[in-house]
Structures are given as structure tokens and as C-alpha cells.
């Protein structure tokens, strides 16, 4: 496992996900685990929620209780637990100061996700935004935003863009844009036209797929914007949802929540214009703006 980039949020998620799956497979409740381990119920709950890290000693004991005895699996989870305790992740302190906890975690998950799937119904996802577009969006929500916060958010968007778009592995970025997103005048004609041209170029990358969902399929857009992040590490595979609602953002790996958003994305993907037609639609909108 040497050489693996350390992302505490991802490691913590993997450990708690594995423990929860193993507990369910064994048919034990959280209370039964707590009694068997001589822990408080709140300790079990907080570990499974990822609110606290688990020590190597405690992890070995609970893995034994849950019949996870394969040396390779135990070794992987112990290493993940070690990494999860490294609270300092490589991110500029100036960025961290102005980002939410979940935004910092999103940066980590995007760096390792095998599949990243965005469904956007209002604005472009941050990783596809040009700096001018991002600034226009930020100033819309906070007209008095100070230079430091603006710089931090621009830096975070740029970092996320590089992280996702410049990866050389087999990871894939799939984006569904509800058609009105293309027609919004964000930042003025020049900014919006530049953004659409940039989007069309980005859509030509081999690891990027962009589809436009026509207005006629607007019922699907009522779910709102979200991102599905799929992560594979060894034999482990899991998926979680990231959403921004009003002034809050959150990550959720509840199976019911993930399944709902997975179904919506699949339905929207099948209802959207194919890639070639979507790019033509994007280019046509940019041309219309430039001619106005």
C-alpha cells in the first residue's frame, strides 16, 4: 500500500463503510456490537457515522467480532484507519479557511473517484467553470465578497478542475446539464460565451462525457443538482452523493439516498441528447451569444 496518496476523509469513509457492511452481513445491531465490545452505543454510532476515528487496537477487536479475518483485508483496513487519523490533508491553509468541511472532503473524494457524475440544473459544476464564470457566480451570491475569500474559492475550483480533468487513469467524469443552464447569462455575454466555448473543448477530452437534458424532460430536473462519486479501493467499492442546498452542502452514503440519485441520473442520462448533439447545442448557444 506504499505510494498511495493519503486522503483522510476517503480512508475514514472506507473504514466505517466496511464495518457497517460487515455488521449488517453478520446480522448484528449497533447495540449488540456495543455490548460485545464493552463500548458505549454512542461510540459505535459515531464510528459508523465517521464522526470519530478508530484506534488500531479497537479496529482489530471489532474486525475479529465481525469475522473479518483475512490478513490482506485486515491490513488494508488498518492502513486506512492510520491514514484517517492524519487530519492534515495537503490543501492550502488559505483555501481551507474559506471552505466548508464537506467541500474539503469533496476535494479528496474527487481525487480518487473512479467515476464522478454531476447532474446540474442551475449552474455549471465548479470543476467545469472558467475563472470569470466562477467569479460571477460568487459575486451573485455574495456581492460584498472580500478578495481573500474570492481568491480562495477561485483557487479551490482551479485545484478541483486540475485534479479531475488531468488524471491519466481510467476515471470518468460524466455531466448532465439541464438545458436552461446553457441559456443563463452568467457574468454577461462575453463571460458566458467564453464559458460555453471552454465547455465544448473540455467535452472533447477522452475522460469527459457531457450531455444536455432538454427542457421537455424538466420533471427530472426537479430533484435538483447533485454529484455521485464512485470509489474503488482494492475489493472495496462504494458510492456517495454530494449536494449543495442553499447555504449548506453535505455528503451522504445512505443506500436509499444513493439509489434514488443513481436512478435519477440514469433516467436523465438516457433522456439527454447524445454527446455529439450536446456539444453542437453548446457551441450553437455560444455562437448565438457572440452574434448578439
Fold topology:
Layout: H1 8-26, H2 30-37, H3 41-49, H4 56-65, H5 71-84, H6 93-98, H7 101-112, E1 115-120, H8 131-141, H9 147-165, E2 172-178, H10 180-183, H11 189-202, E3 208-213, E4 226-233, E5 236-245, E6 248-252, H12 255-271, H13 275-291
Parallel strand pairs: 1-2, 2-3
Antiparallel strand pairs: 1-4, 4-5, 5-6
What does this structure look like?
By secondary structure, the chain is an alpha/beta fold. It has two domains: 8-84, lambda repressor-like DNA-binding domains (434 Repressor (Amino-terminal Domain), Orthogonal Bundle); 102-291, Endonuclease, Chain A (2-Layer Sandwich), CATH 3.30.870. Helices cover 55% and strands 14% of the residues. The chain has a six-stranded mixed β-sheet, with helices on both faces. Strand 5 and strand 6 form a beta hairpin. Helix 1 packs across helix 5, helix 2 (30-37) packs across helix 3 (41-49) and helix 8 (131-141) crosses helix 9 (147-165). The chain is elongated, with a radius of gyration of 21 Å. The termini are far apart.
In short:
The protein has helices spanning 8-26, 30-37, 41-49, 56-65, 71-84, 93-98, 101-112, 131-141, 147-165, 180-183, 189-202, 255-271, 275-291; strands at 115-120, 172-178, 208-213, 226-233, 236-245, 248-252.
Q: Give the count of structural domains.
A: 2
General shape: elongated
The overall pLDDT average reads 90
* Sheet with the most strands, sense and barrel status: 6 strands, mixed
Distance between the termini: 56 Å
- Class computed from helices, strands and strand pairing: alpha/beta
The CATH class name of the largest domain reads: Alpha Beta
Strand content: 5-15%
Low-confidence stretches: none
Question: What order do the SSEs take from the amino end to the carboxyl end, as H and E?
Answer: HHHHHHHEHHEHHEEEEHH
Q: How many helices?
A: 13
Q: At CATH's second level, what is the architecture of the largest domain?
A: 2-Layer Sandwich
For this structure, the quaternary state is: single chain
Number of strands: 6
CATH topology of the largest domain: Endonuclease, Chain A
Strand line-up of the largest beta sheet: 3-2-1-4-5-6
Amino acid at each position: 500500500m506504499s505510494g498511495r496518496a493519503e486522503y483522510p476523509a476517503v480512508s475514514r469513509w472506507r473504514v466505517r463503510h466496511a464495518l457497517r457492511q460487515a455488521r449488517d452481513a453478520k446480522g448484528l445491531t449497533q447495540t449488540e456490537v456495543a455490548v460485545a465490545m464493552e463500548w458505549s452505543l454512542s461510540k459505535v454510532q459515531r464510528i459508523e457515522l465517521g464522526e470519530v476515528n478508530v484506534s488500531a487496537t479497537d479496529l482489530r477487536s471489532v474486525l475479529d467480532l465481525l469475522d473479518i479475518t483475512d490478513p490482506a483485508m485486515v491490513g488494508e483496513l488498518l492502513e486506512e484507519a492510520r491514514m484517517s487519523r492524519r487530519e492534515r490533508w495537503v490543501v492550502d491553509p488559505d483555501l481551507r479557511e474559506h471552505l466548508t468541511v464537506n467541500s474539503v472532503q469533496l476535494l479528496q473524494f474527487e481525487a480518487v473517484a473512479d467515476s464522478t457524475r454531476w447532474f446540474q440544473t442551475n449552474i455549471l459544476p465548479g470543476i467545469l467553470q472558467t475563472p470569470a464564470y466562477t467569479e460571477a457566480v460568487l459575486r451573485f451570491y455574495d456581492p460584498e465578497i472580500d478578495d481573500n475569500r474570492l481568491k480562495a474559492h477561485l483557487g479551490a475550483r482551479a485545484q478541483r478542475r486540475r485534479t479531475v480533468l488531468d488524471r491519466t487513469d481510467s476515471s470518468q467524469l460524466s455531466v448532465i446539464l439541464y438545458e436552461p443552464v446553457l441559456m443563463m447569462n452568467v457574468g454577461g455575454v462575453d463571460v458566458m460565451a467564453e464559458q460555453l466555448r471552454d465547455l465544448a473543448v473540455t467535452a472533447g477530452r477522452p475522460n469527459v462525457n457531457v450531455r444536455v437534458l432538454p427542457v421537455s424532460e424538466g420533471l427530472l430536473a426537479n430533484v435538483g443538482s447533485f454529484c455521485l462519486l464512485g470509489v474503488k479501493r482494492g475489493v472495496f467499492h462504494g458510492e456517495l452523493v454530494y449536494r449543495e442546498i442553499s447555504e449548506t452542502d453535505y455528503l451522504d452514503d445512505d443506500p436509499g439516498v444513493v439509489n434514488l440519485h443513481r436512478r435519477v441520473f440514469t433516467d436523465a442520462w438516457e433522456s439527454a441528447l447524445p454527446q455529439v448533439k450536446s456539444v453542437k447545442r453548446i457551441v450553437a448557444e455560444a455562437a448565438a451569444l457572440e452574434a448578439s
